[in-house]
Amino acid sequence: MEYLSLQGIIIQLWVFGLGLVIGSFLNVCICRIPEKISLLWPASKCVNCSKHIVWYDNIPVLSYLFLRGKCRHCQHKISVLYPIIEIITGIVFLLLFHSVLIISGDLVSDYIFYLVFCCLLIVGSFVDLKLYIIPNEITYTGLILAIIAGLLCTGFHNLDSTLGYFDNSANQWMISLLASVVGILVSGGMIFFCGIIGKLILRKDAMGFGDVKLMGVIGGFLGWKLAVATFFLAPFFGLLFSVPRLISRRGNMIPYGPFLSLAAFICLLFKDVSVEIIDEYLDIYVALFLHFI
Ligand SMILES: [Zn+2]
User: Fold this and answer.
1) Most confident of 62-71, 159-168, 202-211
2) Range of the structural domain that residue 286 is part of
3) What is the pLDDT of residues 220-245, one digit of tens each?
4) Residue 89 Cα, ligand 1 centroid: separation in angstroms?
5) Which of 244, 238, 233, 178 is nearest to 207 (CA)?
6) CA of 22 to the centre of ligand 1 (A)
7) Contact in structure between 267 and 222 (CB atoms under 8 Å)
């Protein structure tokens, strides 16, 4: 596809627009899931005057701009996070469209599962930023969907690379399923043991169990190699964010979910390069290991 042809531009605009609309739904999820309110009913209303929001005041980003960030009835300020989350979702949809469909040439079904995965990360991250929890509704849904993705999309995990030791000619879907499960266990396990070591050193809970489950979701969708890459990338984002916070002494609670999510998204975006880097490191360690035995 030509990016700048008329057809290319229309497709990309459509993908971005779809992201904005889904982002609007993610806003509802972020507000309602922690409160255990149904996602479909009742319709959205103003948090201040409780007036229902009509459809033309509910158009992603545009309505916010048109209303200048205020409720039509009571002029109560609408959080700027709403349009920001919609735009983030739109950008995520567009970037994945380029990397997964155009550069890697994966199937549309893979793209759809990756989109669902990123939506889970967005909701989990923003709830974590607000409330310092990652709801089970997000992580359990993610774990189940990761296993379904493994079952339905046998090309999902790039099996030759993920589980190269198995005979890939037989029972593709069994091995693909196994790749999801191995991903969940390896990556959840990594964070779990980090948490235990952290607890021994710091003598307090270093890592929440929500992070363990979130990492399981990441491994289930991306396979264990990209999960390892995520595991090593996330602390860098964590440091960038925490240092100014610690210097200004604004509290010491730092949610880790958003950094894991951001790292997972970057690894997914550059998945072929990330897997290559992990492979090279593995080769070095295997060579070292063989040298010493
Ligand atoms: Zn209002």
Assistant:
1) 62-71
2) 107-293
3) 999 888 999 999 999 898 888 877 77
4) 26
5) 238
6) 23
7) yes
Residue carrying the six token digits 């929500």:
210
CA 79 to CA 33: how far, in whole Å? 18
pLDDT at position 76 is 93
Q: How remote is the CA of residue 23 from the centroid of ligand 1, in Å? A: 22
- Give the burial string for 276-285 (b: 16+ CB within 10 Å, else e): eebeeeeeee
Q: Is 188 buried (19+), middle (13-18) or exposed (0-12) by CB count in 10 A?
A: buried
Say how many Å lie between the CA of residue 55 and the centre of ligand 1. 15
Number of domain units in the chain? 2
Tens digits of residue pLDDT in 85-133: 999 999 999 999 999 988 888 889 899 999 999 999 999 999 999 999 9
Residue 167 reports pLDDT greater than 60 = no
Contacts made by residues 73-76, CB under 8 angstroms, sequence distance 24+: 73/46, 73/49, 74/46, 74/48, 74/49, 76/46, 76/47, 76/48, 76/49
131 and 88, same structural domain? no
Mark whether 75 and 111 lie in a shared domain.
no
> Please, which residues have CB less than 5 A from ligand 1, an ion?
46, 48-49, 71, 73-74, 76
Same domain, 133 and 92: no
Same domain, 80 and 57: yes
Whole-structure pTM over 0.85, yes or no? yes
